[in-house]
Amino acid sequence: MPELPEIAVKARQMNKEISGKRIANIEAKQPKNLNMPVQRFVKTAKGKIVKNVSGKGKWIFIKLNPNYYMLINLGMNADLLYFTPNQKLPEKYQFKLTFTDKTGFTIQFQWFGYIHLVHEQELSKHKLTSRLGVSLTKAEFTQEHFKELLVNKKGRIKSFLIDQKNVAGIGNVYIQDILFKAKLHPDQPIKTLFKEEVDALYNAILDVLNHSIRLGGLAYEKDFYGKNGRFAINEFLVGYKTGKPCPTCGTAIEKIRTGSTASYICPKCQALK
Ligand SMILES: [Zn+2]
């Protein structure tokens, strides 16, 4: 599943490639991805110009002029690919958007996803995006802000961090190394965390996500140009490394069950306190 780094990489490439372009046509073969009937969707989007593209958590926000946002969520996995006039299109796609210069992009969802058109005045009422927590690589995600988020919170640290309403963009992939770097057990209750641990966790979130962004995201995910990221399995410290030695102390990494998700931990470095 794409998490913040994969979305951030795509959004940045899209912003560079499609800003300023005018929508000429849209082909939507799977109406259930949309939030309105296909005809109305096409009519609303046609002629609008892309102002900019940004990522928020696992969502891509395409700001259109005038007055609209196209909001895209790639679900479990999807190919969102740029095309130019001379390029062969992917064999299968459910959505195709063409600009007046004949470039555009296609989307093929592997499982399910959303492409919603929302008027800017309705954006704060858009259920799926309006309750997203702060996006982790944005300027507003400060150490102070993170501390405040954790004040008086019940529950365990992992389930808090992967809940998109708290912070937007971490799923079950990057959380593994984030908690390892912060030396925290996934089930550590939030209220037991010391200030130093919260600081370490904040730094670990930025370290792990930014490292992946620099590498173009996960190796099994494609970017806007169809290129795979360079964050391969060997980049993980403990994630998906059951039985391998902990990079810090050499103890064998364990896969454990935490709530409804699997976690990879060093039982020594990340002991439950
Ligand atoms: Zn260890």
Mean pLDDT: 95
Distance between the termini: 31 Å
Protein structure class: alpha+beta
Largest sheet: 4 strands, antiparallel
**Roughly how much helix do the residues carry, as a percent range?**
10-25%
Number of helices: 7
CATH topology of the largest domain: Helicase, Ruva Protein, domain 3
Q: Segments where pLDDT lies below 50 for 5+ residues?
A: none
Count of domain modules? 2
Strand content: 15-25%
> What is the H/E string?
HEHEEEEEEEHEHHEHHEE
What molecules are bound to this protein? zinc ion
Number of strands: 12
Report the principal-axis shape: elongated
- Quick one: CATH class of the largest domain? Mainly Alpha
How is the largest sheet built, in terms of strand order? 1-6-7-5
Task: Write the topology of this structure.
Blueprint: H1 4-18, E1 23-28, H2 38-45, E2 49-56, E3 59-65, E4 68-73, E5 78-83, E6 95-99, E7 104-109, E8 114-119, H3 127-130, E9 134-135, H4 143-150, H5 157-161, E10 167-168, H6 175-181, H7 195-214, E11 254-258, E12 261-265
Parallel strand pairs: 9-10
Antiparallel strand pairs: 1-6, 2-3, 3-4, 4-8, 5-7, 6-7, 11-12
The structure holds zinc ion.
Zinc ion binds at residues 246, 248-249, 251, 266, 268-269.
